[in-house]
Design a protein that fits this description.
This protein is mainly alpha-helical. It contains 5 helices and no strands.
Length: 141
């Protein structure tokens, strides 16, 4: 499932069809937020059902918002320069997502740190995708 979601994101050319790119990044991050909320509920059980629903929504919708902002910012910034596969576009998208997290937590420090870390991570992932890095080796049969 994760490979399908990521493939849907990478199949869309940069700087084109920003609504589809934003939808794909929102789907990916929403699933990650749902997984994080499942761990949160399993490791620290809520006192009531409503508290569990609220915690699930908080994690899921925050992650989905970060993904949506990342998808929109990286796609719109790819339309501005001549090179649409520029690493700066992904840094801008990651930084925008990090600033969204800072706004959600009401913390300038979290926003600045998340901007730097998420921007660098997004740029490194794009660099790896462009250069054909292998994260997991293919099994030898």
């Amino acid at each position: 499932m994760a490979r399908t979601l990521l493939q849907r994101y990478w199949d869309i050319p940069n700087g084109t069809e920003c609504h589809r790119k934003a939808y794909a990044s929102t789907s990916i991050s929403g699933v990650l937020g749902l997984i994080a909320s499942a761990y949160s509920i399993a490791l620290k059980p809520p006192d009531s059902f409503l508290e569990g629903v609220a915690r699930t929504g908080r994690y899921t919708f925050t992650a989905a918002a970060i993904g949506a902002i990342f998808g929109i910012a990286s796609c719109v910034s790819a339309k501005v320069p001549e090179k649409s596969d520029d690493l700066l576009n992904y840094f801008i998208g990651g930084c925008a997502g990090g600033l969204t997290l800072g706004a959600r937590t009401h913390s300038y420090g979290v926003g600045a740190a998340a901007c730097a870390y998420m921007g660098m991570t997004a740029a490194l992932v794009k660099m790896g995708q462009l250069e054909g890095w292998k994260v997991f080796a293919e099994p030898r049969v």
